[in-house]
Amino acid sequence: MRIVEAYRAAKIPLSYEMFPPKGEMGLEEAREVLTGLAPLDPAFVSVTYSAGGSGNSKRTVDICALGTRAYGLTMMAHLTCAGSDRASIARNIEALKAAGVENVLALRGDLGQVPASPDYRFAKDLIPQLREAGFCVGAAAYPEGHIDCLDAKENVAHLKEKEEAGAQFFVSQLFFDNECAYRFLDECRAARIHAPIEFGIMPVTSKAQVTRMVFMCGASLPARLVKMLARYEDKPADLRKAGIEYAADQLADLARHGVDGLHVYCMNKADTARELHDAVEPYR
Prior knowledge:
single chain, alpha/beta, TIM Barrel, eight-stranded parallel barrel, 10 helices, 13% strand, globular
């Protein structure tokens, strides 16, 4: 199924992300995660391009093919263009098509040590090529701004450019304060961005995880979350429980506000996905 069709459903779409660390997740491990996600009837399952967005595209394709063919799931492959040229992207496109992938999330990817691309500066440069190839194309949204973008108006302008380039829906970066999402959504609609925006939530399970996300994504930490981390820092089981409850509250509040969609960064933990699915289901 093409993901854009999910936003016409009666229920608010709920989707999940799989994250092959450095592109090295084996297919049996992927099968275990998909076995846990399939009964949740996700709107789609997205598969990252590997840690940092720089690695093993074949593993992304293989996992998407497995989800589609063995489980009948709607899968979405991440595809980054940093350091790529049109020929290498064309090869990736052919691999995705051969695997039966219909949905792609177009991303720039982390620049890191990769050389500058001769053909792609930003994700918006990749989107038209994917649309021309027949994919349903999504792109990333940043409720608190991209780590490289400090101006809120510029952040929204970049999203508008992605929509004009052909993005049909957006999936947001994680955040811990829903007020950031609502403010961002108002700004997007004021800028006449009409594509559905699906908001992404990651449950907190460790202090190290949050620290990593703050530096990687620039996400702000509300006082309630800071206090939770301090209270349960040395109690992993209690922190996990509190983190799931915090994420469930975020998802339920977003659903009550009638957002276009909900996306869970479950870090390959099907049990976490199940708990959050059950918590938010009454509000969809």
